[in-house]
């Protein structure tokens, strides 16, 4: 951290999303409403799983952790985006930029591992139903969740140690509305080809490999079910379609942002907004609308809250 103070650059200039006042107001409403939906939707799932004992099972514990991750990932960028919409000079301090980068990759790394764990959970539940409670017991579930957090932190630290000590003495325009490794590395006053490759391999290729692994695992589950019983295929597909949708929404922007060799500002903005705003608000909708038990539980939780307010009055 001592090297940080030696850098000439003390802050970075972020890219504005809109120039006209009308577009700024539109984006303010868009991001504010979506962020409110992210907070309410994901917290609703978390509280439902915590306070309803029917959902103290591995599948719902993993879902609650996914909601926490989505809320955390969105909170690393969206509040700053809303604040910067009406700010003339969009400057973020060096330490704030590094902090944002670190937590983006912590949350992203944890979600990546968590989606693999959720795929394993569905494989066990669908293909080995008689052994599900033995394999995916509460102890194993908590061990997998803790492992996901540890791997996510290691993933972020592995890249962070290379960036934190880079010398920044020249241009400080990030070229995006948030800080991230690929954009910040290019501003360093040195040859960063090897570091860019490390970031691409660590975030891009791992994201791509994990994405195809998950898709193939879901296809394998569906083929296995079809071989045993074609009647259960449609039911299993409905269950897995929610997981597949979440996987595509999460990994498609990641692969573009870290692997695509010819990024453009318009596509960069689009995929970043999908990753930080759209996906975190869609995940609660996707999982709750496809799950009758979850919808009933959320209604019960809502009625409890309403009844408690009536009692206090």
Uncertain ranges: 1-5
Residue fraction in strands: under 5%
Overall shape:
globular
Query: Tally of extended strands?
Result: 2
Q: Which CATH C-level class is it?
A: Mainly Alpha
Q: Give a short account of the largest sheet.
A: 2 strands, antiparallel
Task: Please give the order of strands in the largest beta sheet.
Answer: 1-2
What share of the residues lie within helices? over 70%
| Radius of gyration computed on alpha carbons | 21 Å
Number of domains: 1
Label the structural class. Answer: mainly alpha
Which helices and strands, and how do they pair?
Blueprint: H1 2-5, E1 11-13, H2 21-51, H3 58-75, H4 78-84, E2 91-93, H5 94-127, H6 132-135, H7 138-163, H8 181-185, H9 193-228, H10 231-259, H11 265-289, H12 292-312
Antiparallel strand pairs: 1-2
Helix pairs in contact: 2-3, 2-4, 2-11, 2-12, 3-5, 3-7, 3-11, 5-7, 5-9, 5-10, 7-9, 9-10, 10-11
């Amino acid at each position: 951290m001592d090297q940080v103070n030696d850098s000439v650059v003390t802050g970075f200039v972020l890219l504005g999303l809109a120039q006209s006042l009308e577009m700024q107001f539109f984006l303010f409403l868009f991001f504010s409403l979506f962020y409110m939906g992210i907070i309410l939707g994901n917290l609703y799932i978390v509280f439902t799983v915590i306070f309803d004992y029917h959902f103290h099972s591995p599948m719902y514990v993993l879902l609650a952790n996914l909601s926490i991750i989505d809320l955390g990932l969105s909170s690393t960028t969206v509040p700053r985006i809303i604040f910067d919409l009406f700010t003339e000079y969009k400057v973020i301090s060096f330490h704030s930029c590094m902090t944002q980068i670190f937590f983006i990759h912590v949350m992203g790394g944890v979600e990546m591992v968590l989606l693999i764990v959720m795929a394993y959970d569905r494989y066990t539940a669908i293909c080995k139903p008689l052994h599900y409670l033995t394999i995916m017991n509460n102890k194993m579930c908590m061990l997998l969740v803790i492992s996901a957090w540890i791997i996510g932190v290691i993933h972020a630290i592995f890249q962070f140690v290379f960036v934190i000590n880079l010398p920044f003495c020249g241009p400080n325009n990030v070229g995006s509305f948030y800080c991230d490794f690929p954009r910040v590395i290019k501003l360093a006053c040195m040859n960063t080809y090897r570091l860019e490759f490390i970031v691409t391999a660590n975030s891009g290729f791992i994201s791509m490999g994990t994405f195809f692994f998950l898709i193939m695992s879901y296809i394998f589950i569906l083929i296995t079910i079809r071989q045993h019983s074609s009647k259960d295929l449609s039911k299993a597909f409905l269950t897995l379609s929610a997981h597949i949708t979440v996987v595509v929404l999460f990994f498609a922007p990641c692969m573009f942002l870290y692997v695509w060799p010819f990024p453009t500002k318009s596509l960069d903005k689009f995929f970043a907004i999908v990753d930080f705003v759209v996906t975190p608000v869609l995940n609660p909708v996707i999982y709750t609308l496809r799950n009758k038990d979850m919808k009933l539980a959320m209604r019960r939780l809502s009625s409890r809250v309403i009844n408690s307010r009536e009692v206090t009055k």
